[in-house]
Protein backbone atom coordinates (compact mmCIF):
# COMPACT_ATOMS: atom_id res chain seq x y z
CA UNK A 1 0.00 0.00 0.00
CA UNK A 2 1.37 3.42 -0.99
CA UNK A 3 0.86 5.76 1.94
CA UNK A 4 1.33 9.52 1.93
CA UNK A 5 1.38 11.33 5.26
CA UNK A 6 0.84 15.10 5.32
CA UNK A 7 3.12 16.69 7.90
CA UNK A 8 3.85 20.28 8.78
CA UNK A 9 6.85 22.04 10.23
CA UNK A 10 5.75 24.70 12.71
CA UNK A 11 7.45 27.17 15.03
CA UNK A 12 8.12 25.48 18.38
CA UNK A 13 4.83 25.85 20.34
CA UNK A 14 6.87 26.22 23.53
CA UNK A 15 8.07 29.64 22.33
CA UNK A 16 5.61 32.57 22.05
CA UNK A 17 4.29 33.02 18.50
CA UNK A 18 4.77 36.37 16.77
CA UNK A 19 3.21 37.96 13.71
CA UNK A 20 5.01 40.03 11.06
CA UNK A 21 4.09 43.69 11.37
CA UNK A 22 2.48 44.49 8.00
CA UNK A 23 1.43 41.15 6.57
CA UNK A 24 0.25 39.68 9.90
CA UNK A 25 1.81 36.39 8.81
CA UNK A 26 3.23 34.08 11.44
CA UNK A 27 6.97 34.52 11.93
CA UNK A 28 8.60 31.22 10.94
CA UNK A 29 12.18 30.68 12.12
CA UNK A 30 14.54 28.49 10.12
CA UNK A 31 14.45 25.93 12.93
CA UNK A 32 10.91 24.58 12.91
CA UNK A 33 9.68 21.41 14.60
CA UNK A 34 7.37 18.65 13.39
CA UNK A 35 3.83 19.50 14.48
CA UNK A 36 3.18 17.12 17.35
CA UNK A 37 -0.22 16.35 15.81
CA UNK A 38 1.54 14.85 12.80
CA UNK A 39 3.57 12.32 14.78
CA UNK A 40 0.36 10.28 15.12
CA UNK A 41 -0.22 10.31 11.36
CA UNK A 42 3.37 9.27 10.69
CA UNK A 43 3.10 6.41 13.21
CA UNK A 44 -0.25 5.27 11.80
CA UNK A 45 1.22 5.34 8.31
CA UNK A 46 4.26 3.32 9.36
CA UNK A 47 2.13 0.65 11.04
CA UNK A 48 -0.21 0.30 8.04
CA UNK A 49 2.73 0.28 5.62
CA UNK A 50 4.45 -2.46 7.60
CA UNK A 51 1.40 -4.73 7.56
CA UNK A 52 0.85 -4.22 3.82
CA UNK A 53 4.44 -4.31 2.59
CA UNK A 54 4.43 -0.66 1.55
CA UNK A 55 6.19 2.57 2.36
CA UNK A 56 5.44 6.02 3.73
CA UNK A 57 6.15 9.26 1.89
CA UNK A 58 5.93 12.55 3.77
CA UNK A 59 4.42 15.52 1.90
CA UNK A 60 4.89 18.94 3.46
CA UNK A 61 4.33 22.54 2.42
CA UNK A 62 6.17 25.50 3.85
CA UNK A 63 9.66 26.88 4.32
CA UNK A 64 11.97 23.86 4.50
CA UNK A 65 14.48 25.70 6.70
CA UNK A 66 16.77 23.36 8.58
CA UNK A 67 14.32 20.51 7.87
CA UNK A 68 14.62 19.40 11.48
CA UNK A 69 10.91 18.54 11.62
CA UNK A 70 10.93 16.56 8.37
CA UNK A 71 14.04 14.68 9.44
CA UNK A 72 12.18 13.66 12.59
CA UNK A 73 9.44 12.06 10.47
CA UNK A 74 12.10 10.33 8.36
CA UNK A 75 13.91 9.17 11.51
CA UNK A 76 10.68 7.55 12.68
CA UNK A 77 10.80 5.43 9.52
CA UNK A 78 9.28 7.25 6.53
CA UNK A 79 11.13 6.48 3.28
CA UNK A 80 11.24 9.90 1.70
CA UNK A 81 9.90 13.42 1.98
CA UNK A 82 8.54 15.83 -0.60
CA UNK A 83 8.57 19.47 0.46
CA UNK A 84 6.92 22.29 -1.46
CA UNK A 85 8.88 25.37 -0.53
CA UNK A 86 8.16 28.42 -2.65
CA UNK A 87 8.38 32.09 -1.62
CA UNK A 88 5.07 32.83 -3.35
CA UNK A 89 3.36 30.50 -0.88
CA UNK A 90 4.00 32.81 2.06
CA UNK A 91 0.68 33.87 3.53
CA UNK A 92 -1.22 31.08 1.79
CA UNK A 93 -4.65 30.15 3.08
CA UNK A 94 -6.29 26.77 3.60
CA UNK A 95 -7.48 26.46 0.00
CA UNK A 96 -4.10 27.21 -1.57
CA UNK A 97 -2.41 24.87 0.91
CA UNK A 98 -4.86 22.11 -0.04
CA UNK A 99 -4.34 22.70 -3.78
CA UNK A 100 -0.59 22.46 -3.36
CA UNK A 101 -0.71 19.35 -1.15
CA UNK A 102 -3.24 17.62 -3.43
CA UNK A 103 -1.09 18.29 -6.51
CA UNK A 104 2.01 16.92 -4.79
CA UNK A 105 0.15 13.87 -3.48
CA UNK A 106 -1.34 13.11 -6.92
CA UNK A 107 2.11 13.42 -8.48
CA UNK A 108 3.49 10.99 -5.90
CA UNK A 109 0.65 8.46 -6.27
CA UNK A 110 -1.17 6.94 -3.29
CA UNK A 111 -3.61 4.40 -1.93
CA UNK A 112 -4.08 6.14 1.40
CA UNK A 113 -3.42 9.71 2.54
CA UNK A 114 -3.11 10.37 6.28
CA UNK A 115 -3.26 13.81 7.90
CA UNK A 116 -3.80 15.27 11.36
CA UNK A 117 -7.17 16.86 12.09
CA UNK A 118 -5.76 20.39 12.26
CA UNK A 119 -2.35 22.01 12.58
CA UNK A 120 -1.21 23.42 15.90
CA UNK A 121 -0.19 26.79 14.41
CA UNK A 122 -3.04 27.47 11.98
CA UNK A 123 -6.07 25.52 13.24
CA UNK A 124 -8.25 26.09 10.17
CA UNK A 125 -9.27 22.44 10.45
CA UNK A 126 -10.44 22.12 6.83
CA UNK A 127 -7.30 21.43 4.77
CA UNK A 128 -7.52 17.59 4.69
CA UNK A 129 -11.18 17.70 3.61
CA UNK A 130 -10.24 20.10 0.80
CA UNK A 131 -7.39 17.82 -0.28
CA UNK A 132 -9.82 14.87 -0.39
CA UNK A 133 -12.31 16.80 -2.54
CA UNK A 134 -9.61 17.84 -5.00
CA UNK A 135 -8.33 14.25 -5.20
CA UNK A 136 -11.95 12.99 -5.49
CA UNK A 137 -11.57 10.50 -2.64
CA UNK A 138 -13.50 10.05 0.62
CA UNK A 139 -12.24 11.76 3.78
CA UNK A 140 -12.69 9.54 6.81
CA UNK A 141 -12.18 12.10 9.52
CA UNK A 142 -11.27 12.30 13.24
CA UNK A 143 -10.18 8.67 13.42
CA UNK A 144 -9.41 7.10 16.79
CA UNK A 145 -8.81 3.71 15.17
CA UNK A 146 -7.82 2.82 11.60
CA UNK A 147 -7.78 -0.51 9.76
CA UNK A 148 -6.87 -0.74 6.09
CA UNK A 149 -6.55 -3.82 3.91
CA UNK A 150 -7.74 -5.42 0.69
CA UNK A 151 -8.77 -2.16 -0.88
CA UNK A 152 -10.85 -1.01 2.05
CA UNK A 153 -10.37 1.34 5.01
CA UNK A 154 -12.44 1.28 8.20
CA UNK A 155 -12.18 3.78 11.03
CA UNK A 156 -13.73 4.72 14.33
CA UNK A 157 -14.78 8.33 13.76
CA UNK A 158 -14.83 10.37 16.94
CA UNK A 159 -18.10 12.20 17.60
CA UNK A 160 -19.21 14.56 20.37
CA UNK A 161 -20.87 11.63 22.15
CA UNK A 162 -18.77 8.59 21.20
CA UNK A 163 -17.80 7.23 17.79
CA UNK A 164 -19.15 6.02 14.45
CA UNK A 165 -17.77 3.15 12.41
CA UNK A 166 -17.07 4.46 8.90
CA UNK A 167 -15.82 2.51 5.90
CA UNK A 168 -14.82 3.30 2.34
CA UNK A 169 -12.93 1.89 -0.60
CA UNK A 170 -9.33 2.89 -1.28
CA UNK A 171 -7.96 5.24 -2.43
CA UNK A 172 -9.01 7.40 0.51
CA UNK A 173 -7.87 10.04 2.97
CA UNK A 174 -7.97 9.61 6.74
CA UNK A 175 -7.48 12.26 9.43
CA UNK A 176 -6.24 10.96 12.76
CA UNK A 177 -6.68 12.24 16.29
CA UNK A 178 -3.91 12.10 18.85
CA UNK A 179 -5.42 9.02 20.48
CA UNK A 180 -5.06 6.79 17.41
CA UNK A 181 -1.63 5.26 18.10
CA UNK A 182 1.36 5.81 20.36
CA UNK A 183 4.05 7.45 18.21
CA UNK A 184 7.47 5.83 18.39
CA UNK A 185 10.59 7.78 19.31
CA UNK A 186 13.26 7.75 16.61
CA UNK A 187 16.14 5.40 17.39
CA UNK A 188 19.77 6.46 17.00
CA UNK A 189 19.97 4.27 13.90
CA UNK A 190 16.82 5.91 12.56
CA UNK A 191 18.25 9.38 13.11
CA UNK A 192 21.47 8.47 11.29
CA UNK A 193 19.60 6.89 8.38
CA UNK A 194 17.25 9.89 8.10
CA UNK A 195 20.20 12.08 7.14
CA UNK A 196 20.66 10.03 3.98
CA UNK A 197 17.01 9.68 2.99
CA UNK A 198 15.81 11.57 -0.08
CA UNK A 199 14.04 14.92 0.33
CA UNK A 200 12.57 16.25 -2.94
CA UNK A 201 11.98 19.97 -3.07
CA UNK A 202 9.23 21.13 -5.42
CA UNK A 203 8.25 24.60 -6.59
CA UNK A 204 4.73 25.74 -7.43
CA UNK A 205 5.54 25.79 -11.11
CA UNK A 206 6.32 22.07 -11.04
CA UNK A 207 2.83 21.44 -9.67
CA UNK A 208 1.01 23.88 -12.00
CA UNK A 209 -0.74 25.57 -9.06
CA UNK A 210 -1.29 29.34 -9.01
CA UNK A 211 -0.54 31.17 -5.74
CA UNK A 212 -3.89 32.98 -5.45
CA UNK A 213 -5.16 33.94 -2.01
CA UNK A 214 -8.53 35.67 -1.64
CA UNK A 215 -8.52 36.38 2.07
CA UNK A 216 -6.43 38.53 4.34
CA UNK A 217 -5.97 39.61 7.94
CA UNK A 218 -6.68 43.34 8.09
CA UNK A 219 -5.73 44.13 11.67
CA UNK A 220 -4.57 42.70 14.98
CA UNK A 221 -5.46 44.09 18.37
CA UNK A 222 -5.14 43.03 21.98
CA UNK A 223 -8.17 41.28 23.41
CA UNK A 224 -9.61 42.81 26.54
CA UNK A 225 -7.50 41.14 29.20
CA UNK A 226 -9.20 39.13 31.86
CA UNK A 227 -7.56 40.21 35.07
CA UNK A 228 -6.75 37.54 37.58
CA UNK A 229 -7.99 37.90 41.13
CA UNK A 230 -6.52 36.61 44.35
CA UNK A 231 -3.55 34.26 44.13
CA UNK A 232 -2.80 32.47 47.38
CA UNK A 233 -0.30 29.84 48.49
CA UNK A 234 -1.88 26.73 49.94
CA UNK A 235 -1.09 26.69 53.64
CA UNK A 236 -3.20 23.61 54.23
CA UNK A 237 -6.46 25.57 54.42
CA UNK A 238 -6.82 26.87 50.85
CA UNK A 239 -9.84 24.62 50.30
CA UNK A 240 -11.76 26.84 52.75
CA UNK A 241 -11.27 29.80 50.41
CA UNK A 242 -12.77 27.73 47.59
CA UNK A 243 -15.76 26.81 49.76
CA UNK A 244 -16.27 30.48 50.69
CA UNK A 245 -16.29 31.51 47.03
CA UNK A 246 -18.62 28.63 46.03
CA UNK A 247 -21.01 29.64 48.83
CA UNK A 248 -20.84 33.28 47.77
CA UNK A 249 -21.74 32.24 44.20
CA UNK A 250 -24.55 30.07 45.59
CA UNK A 251 -23.13 26.88 44.09
CA UNK A 252 -23.40 25.31 47.55
CA UNK B 1 -32.00 41.78 0.55
CA UNK B 2 -28.88 39.94 1.53
CA UNK B 3 -29.07 36.17 1.68
CA UNK B 4 -27.43 33.86 4.20
CA UNK B 5 -27.24 30.08 4.19
CA UNK B 6 -26.68 28.22 7.42
CA UNK B 7 -25.47 24.61 7.59
CA UNK B 8 -27.57 22.76 10.16
CA UNK B 9 -26.71 19.26 11.34
CA UNK B 10 -29.37 17.17 12.99
CA UNK B 11 -28.62 15.55 16.34
CA UNK B 12 -31.18 13.41 18.18
CA UNK B 13 -33.88 14.49 15.75
CA UNK B 14 -33.34 18.23 16.24
CA UNK B 15 -31.01 20.99 14.99
CA UNK B 16 -27.84 21.23 17.10
CA UNK B 17 -27.63 24.14 19.60
CA UNK B 18 -24.68 25.47 17.58
CA UNK B 19 -26.86 25.66 14.45
CA UNK B 20 -29.51 27.62 16.36
CA UNK B 21 -26.81 30.13 17.38
CA UNK B 22 -25.85 30.55 13.72
CA UNK B 23 -29.48 30.92 12.59
CA UNK B 24 -30.00 33.64 15.21
CA UNK B 25 -26.99 35.53 13.85
CA UNK B 26 -27.89 34.90 10.21
CA UNK B 27 -31.44 36.28 10.40
CA UNK B 28 -30.06 39.60 11.65
CA UNK B 29 -28.04 39.90 8.44
CA UNK B 30 -30.44 38.73 5.75
CA UNK B 31 -32.94 36.22 4.40
CA UNK B 32 -31.95 32.91 5.90
CA UNK B 33 -31.95 29.46 4.33
CA UNK B 34 -31.11 26.41 6.47
CA UNK B 35 -29.27 23.53 4.78
CA UNK B 36 -30.70 20.82 7.01
CA UNK B 37 -28.79 17.53 7.07
CA UNK B 38 -30.58 14.68 8.84
CA UNK B 39 -33.74 12.57 8.80
CA UNK B 40 -35.91 15.67 9.22
CA UNK B 41 -39.40 16.08 10.70
CA UNK B 42 -42.18 18.67 10.90
CA UNK B 43 -41.00 19.47 14.41
CA UNK B 44 -37.36 19.95 13.39
CA UNK B 45 -38.32 22.19 10.45
CA UNK B 46 -40.65 24.23 12.69
CA UNK B 47 -37.73 24.79 15.04
CA UNK B 48 -35.61 26.10 12.16
CA UNK B 49 -38.44 28.54 11.38
CA UNK B 50 -38.62 29.58 15.00
CA UNK B 51 -34.96 30.59 14.88
CA UNK B 52 -35.29 32.55 11.67
CA UNK B 53 -34.99 30.21 8.66
CA UNK B 54 -37.42 31.25 5.88
CA UNK B 55 -36.45 28.36 3.66
CA UNK B 56 -35.07 24.89 4.33
CA UNK B 57 -33.13 22.76 1.89
CA UNK B 58 -33.36 19.27 3.33
CA UNK B 59 -30.85 16.49 2.68
CA UNK B 60 -31.26 13.06 4.24
CA UNK B 61 -27.84 11.38 4.21
CA UNK B 62 -29.11 7.93 5.24
CA UNK B 63 -26.02 5.87 6.08
CA UNK B 64 -23.69 7.97 3.90
CA UNK B 65 -20.90 9.94 5.56
CA UNK B 66 -22.35 13.40 4.99
CA UNK B 67 -19.44 15.47 3.67
CA UNK B 68 -19.00 14.52 0.01
CA UNK B 69 -22.66 14.19 -1.08
CA UNK B 70 -23.84 17.23 0.90
CA UNK B 71 -21.01 19.42 -0.39
CA UNK B 72 -21.84 18.38 -3.94
CA UNK B 73 -25.56 19.01 -3.52
CA UNK B 74 -24.78 22.47 -2.15
CA UNK B 75 -22.33 23.18 -4.98
CA UNK B 76 -24.98 22.23 -7.57
CA UNK B 77 -27.49 24.55 -5.92
CA UNK B 78 -24.91 27.35 -5.93
CA UNK B 79 -24.77 27.23 -9.72
CA UNK B 80 -28.08 29.11 -9.77
CA UNK B 81 -28.29 30.68 -6.30
CA UNK B 82 -25.79 33.18 -4.91
CA UNK B 83 -26.11 33.75 -1.17
CA UNK B 84 -23.81 36.42 0.24
CA UNK B 85 -22.65 34.26 3.11
CA UNK B 86 -22.65 30.58 4.09
CA UNK B 87 -22.20 29.94 7.80
CA UNK B 88 -20.92 26.72 9.35
CA UNK B 89 -20.06 25.91 12.97
CA UNK B 90 -16.56 24.93 14.06
CA UNK B 91 -17.76 21.34 14.49
CA UNK B 92 -16.90 18.01 12.88
CA UNK B 93 -19.52 17.54 10.14
CA UNK B 94 -19.57 21.29 9.50
CA UNK B 95 -15.81 21.33 8.93
CA UNK B 96 -16.00 18.32 6.61
CA UNK B 97 -18.77 19.78 4.45
CA UNK B 98 -17.29 23.30 4.45
CA UNK B 99 -13.85 22.09 3.40
CA UNK B 100 -15.17 19.96 0.55
CA UNK B 101 -17.58 22.66 -0.62
CA UNK B 102 -14.85 25.32 -0.58
CA UNK B 103 -12.53 23.14 -2.64
CA UNK B 104 -15.33 22.20 -5.05
CA UNK B 105 -16.42 25.77 -5.82
CA UNK B 106 -12.94 27.28 -5.38
CA UNK B 107 -13.99 29.59 -2.56
CA UNK B 108 -11.74 30.70 0.29
CA UNK B 109 -12.89 29.99 3.80
CA UNK B 110 -12.32 31.62 7.18
CA UNK B 111 -12.21 29.32 10.23
CA UNK B 112 -12.65 29.88 13.97
CA UNK B 113 -14.51 33.18 13.62
CA UNK B 114 -16.19 34.65 16.71
CA UNK B 115 -17.91 37.48 14.81
CA UNK B 116 -19.02 37.84 11.20
CA UNK B 117 -20.56 40.47 8.95
CA UNK B 118 -22.58 40.07 5.76
CA UNK B 119 -19.64 41.32 3.66
CA UNK B 120 -17.50 38.36 4.80
CA UNK B 121 -15.43 40.26 7.35
CA UNK B 122 -14.75 38.34 10.54
CA UNK B 123 -13.09 38.46 13.96
CA UNK B 124 -10.93 35.67 15.33
CA UNK B 125 -9.42 35.11 18.74
CA UNK B 126 -5.81 34.10 18.28
CA UNK B 127 -2.98 33.07 20.59
CA UNK B 128 -5.34 31.63 23.19
CA UNK B 129 -7.68 34.59 23.01
CA UNK B 130 -5.05 37.18 23.97
CA UNK B 131 -5.33 38.91 20.59
CA UNK B 132 -8.09 39.58 18.09
CA UNK B 133 -7.46 39.29 14.36
CA UNK B 134 -9.85 40.98 11.95
CA UNK B 135 -9.98 39.29 8.56
CA UNK B 136 -11.86 39.55 5.29
CA UNK B 137 -12.60 37.49 2.22
CA UNK B 138 -11.80 39.35 -0.99
CA UNK B 139 -13.33 36.77 -3.36
CA UNK B 140 -16.79 37.00 -4.91
CA UNK B 141 -19.77 35.70 -2.93
CA UNK B 142 -20.67 33.27 -1.49
CA UNK B 143 -18.26 33.78 1.41
CA UNK B 144 -17.74 30.74 3.61
CA UNK B 145 -17.17 31.20 7.34
CA UNK B 146 -16.82 28.70 10.20
CA UNK B 147 -18.01 30.10 13.55
CA UNK B 148 -16.85 28.93 16.97
CA UNK B 149 -19.57 27.54 19.28
CA UNK B 150 -21.14 29.98 21.77
CA UNK B 151 -20.09 33.04 19.77
CA UNK B 152 -23.75 34.08 19.63
CA UNK B 153 -26.69 33.39 21.93
CA UNK B 154 -29.51 31.35 20.33
CA UNK B 155 -32.82 33.21 20.58
CA UNK B 156 -36.13 32.26 18.97
CA UNK B 157 -37.74 34.94 16.80
CA UNK B 158 -41.22 33.74 15.97
CA UNK B 159 -43.03 30.70 14.72
CA UNK B 160 -43.41 31.20 10.99
CA UNK B 161 -43.15 27.82 9.24
CA UNK B 162 -40.35 27.73 6.68
CA UNK B 163 -40.74 26.57 3.11
CA UNK B 164 -39.10 23.13 2.91
CA UNK B 165 -37.54 21.69 -0.24
CA UNK B 166 -36.17 18.15 -0.23
CA UNK B 167 -32.98 17.73 -2.26
CA UNK B 168 -31.73 14.44 -3.68
CA UNK B 169 -28.45 13.15 -2.34
CA UNK B 170 -26.08 13.02 -5.32
CA UNK B 171 -24.12 9.86 -6.10
CA UNK B 172 -20.48 10.71 -5.40
CA UNK B 173 -18.97 7.42 -6.59
CA UNK B 174 -15.53 6.71 -5.17
CA UNK B 175 -15.61 9.81 -2.93
CA UNK B 176 -18.33 8.32 -0.75
CA UNK B 177 -18.07 6.56 2.60
CA UNK B 178 -20.58 4.65 4.68
CA UNK B 179 -21.46 4.86 8.37
CA UNK B 180 -21.98 1.25 9.46
CA UNK B 181 -22.35 1.71 13.22
CA UNK B 182 -22.76 4.26 15.99
CA UNK B 183 -21.43 3.95 19.51
CA UNK B 184 -22.56 6.31 22.29
CA UNK B 185 -20.36 6.61 25.35
CA UNK B 186 -22.20 6.69 28.64
CA UNK B 187 -22.20 9.97 30.49
CA UNK B 188 -23.14 10.81 34.06
CA UNK B 189 -24.28 14.21 35.29
CA UNK B 190 -25.01 17.35 33.26
CA UNK B 191 -23.69 18.04 29.76
CA UNK B 192 -20.55 20.15 29.57
CA UNK B 193 -22.11 22.69 27.21
CA UNK B 194 -25.10 23.33 29.48
CA UNK B 195 -23.56 22.97 32.96
CA UNK B 196 -23.60 25.89 35.40
CA UNK B 197 -20.55 24.47 37.16
CA UNK B 198 -17.65 22.57 35.59
CA UNK B 199 -14.78 20.77 37.33
CA UNK B 200 -11.88 20.02 34.96
CA UNK B 201 -8.65 18.13 35.35
CA UNK B 202 -5.28 18.29 33.58
CA UNK B 203 -1.92 16.61 33.55
CA UNK B 204 -1.19 17.88 37.07
CA UNK B 205 -3.45 15.11 38.36
CA UNK B 206 -0.53 12.79 37.69
CA UNK B 207 -2.43 9.70 36.62
CA UNK B 208 -5.71 8.49 35.11
CA UNK B 209 -6.78 7.06 38.47
CA UNK B 210 -6.63 10.50 40.07
CA UNK B 211 -9.35 11.74 37.71
CA UNK B 212 -11.63 10.12 40.27
CA UNK B 213 -11.03 13.23 42.43
CA UNK B 214 -12.54 15.36 39.65
CA UNK B 215 -15.55 13.05 39.40
CA UNK B 216 -16.16 13.04 43.15
CA UNK B 217 -15.93 16.83 43.38
CA UNK B 218 -18.16 17.14 40.30
CA UNK B 219 -20.81 14.93 41.86
CA UNK B 220 -20.80 16.93 45.11
CA UNK B 221 -21.31 20.18 43.21
CA UNK B 222 -23.78 18.84 40.63
CA UNK B 223 -21.16 19.85 38.07
CA UNK B 224 -20.14 18.51 34.68
CA UNK B 225 -16.59 17.18 34.46
CA UNK B 226 -14.10 18.31 31.84
CA UNK B 227 -10.52 17.73 30.80
CA UNK B 228 -7.59 19.17 28.89
CA UNK B 229 -6.46 17.90 25.53
CA UNK B 230 -3.30 16.51 27.14
CA UNK B 231 -5.13 13.98 29.31
CA UNK B 232 -7.63 13.12 26.57
CA UNK B 233 -4.71 12.41 24.22
CA UNK B 234 -3.10 10.35 26.98
CA UNK B 235 -6.26 8.24 27.07
CA UNK B 236 -7.20 9.05 30.68
CA UNK B 237 -10.70 10.26 29.75
CA UNK B 238 -12.83 10.21 26.57
CA UNK B 239 -12.78 13.02 24.02
CA UNK B 240 -16.35 14.01 24.92
CA UNK B 241 -14.86 15.65 28.05
CA UNK B 242 -12.32 17.81 26.21
CA UNK B 243 -12.59 21.56 26.75
CA UNK B 244 -10.65 23.83 24.42
CA UNK B 245 -9.85 24.79 20.85
CA UNK B 246 -10.42 21.30 19.49
CA UNK B 247 -12.94 20.31 22.15
CA UNK B 248 -15.92 22.05 23.66
CA UNK B 249 -16.32 25.76 24.27
CA UNK B 250 -17.90 26.39 27.68
CA UNK B 251 -19.12 29.45 29.56
CA UNK B 252 -20.31 28.19 32.97
CA UNK B 253 -20.95 30.30 36.08
CA UNK B 254 -18.04 28.60 37.83
CA UNK B 255 -15.10 26.71 36.28
CA UNK B 256 -12.75 24.85 38.60
CA UNK B 257 -9.43 23.99 36.90
CA UNK B 258 -7.44 21.34 38.76
CA UNK B 259 -3.85 20.62 37.76
CA UNK B 260 -4.32 22.56 34.53
CA UNK B 261 -1.47 24.85 33.49
CA UNK B 262 -3.54 26.85 31.01
CA UNK B 263 -2.20 26.02 27.54
CA UNK B 264 -3.64 28.31 24.83
CA UNK B 265 -5.53 25.33 23.44
CA UNK B 266 -7.43 25.02 26.74
CA UNK B 267 -7.88 28.70 27.66
CA UNK B 268 -9.68 29.55 24.43
CA UNK B 269 -12.40 27.06 25.37
CA UNK B 270 -13.10 28.26 28.92
CA UNK B 271 -11.76 31.77 29.49
CA UNK B 272 -15.24 33.30 29.24
CA UNK B 273 -16.45 31.41 32.33
CA UNK B 274 -17.95 33.88 34.83
CA UNK B 275 -15.80 32.75 37.76
CA UNK B 276 -12.59 30.74 37.40
CA UNK B 277 -11.04 28.86 40.31
CA UNK B 278 -7.66 27.24 39.64
CA UNK B 279 -5.41 24.96 41.63
CA UNK B 280 -1.87 24.53 40.31
CA UNK B 281 1.54 23.79 41.80
CA UNK B 282 3.34 26.22 39.51
CA UNK B 283 2.87 29.85 40.62
CA UNK B 284 3.69 30.96 37.05
CA UNK B 285 1.06 28.77 35.36
CA UNK B 286 -0.96 30.90 32.88
CA UNK B 287 -4.26 29.66 34.34
CA UNK B 288 -3.45 31.48 37.61
CA UNK B 289 -3.14 34.71 35.64
CA UNK B 290 -6.82 34.63 34.66
CA UNK B 291 -8.29 32.90 37.73
CA UNK B 292 -10.55 34.84 40.10
CA UNK B 293 -9.23 32.59 42.85
CA UNK B 294 -5.86 30.99 42.18
CA UNK B 295 -4.49 28.45 44.62
CA UNK B 296 -0.76 27.77 44.34
CA UNK B 297 -0.81 24.26 45.71
CA UNK B 298 -0.85 20.53 45.13
CA UNK B 299 -4.17 19.16 43.78
CA UNK B 300 -3.47 15.90 45.59
CA UNK B 301 -3.64 17.78 48.89
CA UNK B 302 -6.22 20.49 48.18
CA UNK B 303 -8.83 18.34 46.40
CA UNK B 304 -9.20 15.60 49.08
CA UNK B 305 -9.63 18.28 51.75
CA UNK B 306 -12.15 20.16 49.62
CA UNK B 307 -14.10 16.95 48.96
CA UNK B 308 -14.08 15.99 52.64
CA UNK B 309 -15.22 19.45 53.73
CA UNK B 310 -18.08 19.40 51.19
CA UNK B 311 -19.13 15.90 52.29
CA UNK B 312 -19.31 17.11 55.88
CA UNK B 313 -21.49 20.09 55.13
Which features does this protein show?
A: 252 residues; alpha/beta; nine-stranded mixed sheet; two-stranded antiparallel ribbon; 7 helices; 13 strands; 28% helix; 29% strand; B: 313 residues; ten-stranded mixed sheet; five-stranded parallel sheet
Structural commentary:
The complex is a heterodimer of chains A (252) and B (313). Chain A is α/β, with parallel strands linked by helices and 252 residues long. Chain A contains seven helices and 13 strands. A nine-stranded mixed sheet of chain A has the order 9-8-7-10-6-1-4-5-11, with helices on both faces. In chain A, a hairpin with a 3-residue loop joins strand 8 and strand 9. Chain A is globular, with a radius of gyration of 21 Å. Chain B is an alpha/beta fold and 313 residues long. Chain B is built from nine helices and 16 strands. In chain B, strands 1, 2, 3, 4, 5, 6, 7, 8, 9 and 10 form a ten-stranded mixed sheet that branches. At the A-B interface, helix 3, helix 4, strand 7, strand 8 and strand 9 of A face helix 3, helix 4, strand 6, strand 7 and strand 8 of B. Strand 13 of chain A pairs parallel with strand 16 of chain B.
Blueprint (SSEs and pairs):
The complex is a heterodimer of chains A (252) and B (313).
Chain A lengths: L1 E5 L2 E2 L22 E2 L1 H16 L3 E7 L6 H9 L3 E5 L9 H15 L3 E5 L10 H9 L3 E11 L2 E7 L3 E8 L2 E5 L11 H7 L4 E4 L1 H4 L7 E8 L7 E4 L4 H11 L4
Parallel strand pairs in A: 1-4, 1-6, 4-5, 5-11, 6-10, 7-10
Antiparallel strand pairs in A: 2-3, 7-8, 8-9
Chain B lengths: L2 E9 L2 E2 L1 H11 L3 E7 L4 H9 L4 E5 L7 H11 L7 E5 L2 H14 L3 E8 L4 E6 L4 E7 L5 E5 L15 E4 L11 E7 L12 E5 L9 H11 L2 E4 L1 H5 L20 E5 L5 H7 L4 E6 L5 H5 L2 E4 L2 H13 L2
Helix pairs in contact in B: 3-4, 5-9
Amino acid sequence: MRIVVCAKQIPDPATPYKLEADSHWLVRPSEQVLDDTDRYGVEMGLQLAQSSDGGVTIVSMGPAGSMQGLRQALAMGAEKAVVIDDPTLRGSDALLTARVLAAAIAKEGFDLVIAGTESTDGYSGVVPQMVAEILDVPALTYATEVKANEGKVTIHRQTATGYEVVEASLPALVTVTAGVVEPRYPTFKGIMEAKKKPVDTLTLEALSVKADVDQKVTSISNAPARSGGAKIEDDGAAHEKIIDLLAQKKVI
Amino acid sequence: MAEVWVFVREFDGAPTPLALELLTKARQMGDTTAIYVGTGSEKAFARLGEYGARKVLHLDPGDSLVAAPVARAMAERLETEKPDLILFGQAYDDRDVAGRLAARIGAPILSNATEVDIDGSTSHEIFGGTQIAEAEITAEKPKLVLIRPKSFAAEPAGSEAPQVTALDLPDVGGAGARVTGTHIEEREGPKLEDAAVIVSGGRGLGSAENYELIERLGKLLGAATGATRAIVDAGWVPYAKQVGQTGKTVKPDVYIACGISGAMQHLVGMKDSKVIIAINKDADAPILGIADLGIVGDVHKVLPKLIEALENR
